[in-house]
Amino acid sequence: YQNFNIQCVNDLSDRTLTALAKLKYLTSVEFCAARLTGNGIFEWLRQATKFEGSVGPERMLGVRIGGHKRSGFRLPRFYAEIMELLRLLSEIDEESLGAASCRTKPLLYIANPFQSKVSRVWSAFYMRDKLRPVLEAVKAKHPSLRVNVALLGRDGDKFNRIDTLTLDWRVKESKRKNELFFDYIEEHAERDTYLDAARYEIISDDEGGSDEDDRERELQSAILTGFNHEYDADL
What we know:
Layout: E1 9-13, H1 14-21, E2 28-35, H2 38-48, E3 58-65, H3 78-90, H4 94-97, E4 105-111, H5 120-141, E5 146-152, E6 161-168, H6 171-174, E7 181-184, H7 188-201, H8 212-234
Parallel strand pairs: 1-2, 2-3, 3-4, 5-7
Antiparallel strand pairs: 4-6, 5-6
Helix pairs in contact: 1-2, 2-3, 3-5
């Protein structure tokens, strides 16, 4: 179904994650769209890797980052929060984190609940100057980690949408080919969904009648006149 307007559970937050991470025998958690941050997910990881002994082969966390009100040209907070999570991972080495050495290996899926596409101009900046460098830094600090970003509509550094960030420390998975990016094949119907979703997610409800080309030009203009600086301040 087309999940244009995402309703999040306000009571699910970073504090909820921290509390759940302390439950040793809770080995699988999956959240609906919630008010989570990259820092909160990182703290869950730190807590989950502190347990001694084994309660199973893996500890899985699946979350969808939502719940941040957007207006005008504000992007889903998903893009900023995965950058924050990756930045924190790039600042700690594998031994200090303990995810590779603990017996119950962590597996994280961080998903984008929004279906709308981002500006192609902005996506090139985000990929080239933000995402790719921090992914490479994370891989250098965590050689046992399999990190993967699933995208739609990728062409060089440009893309339409990021779907999921996967962080996987399981031993059996570390032996597989580790590609930083995975491309989902876009069907024509999915491209149409982007156009419809953008009217709800990027433009306010009262401004849903403008066409895609006008929105793209407005987004590009916003980027060139300082949108990048505003986004940097949020990271």
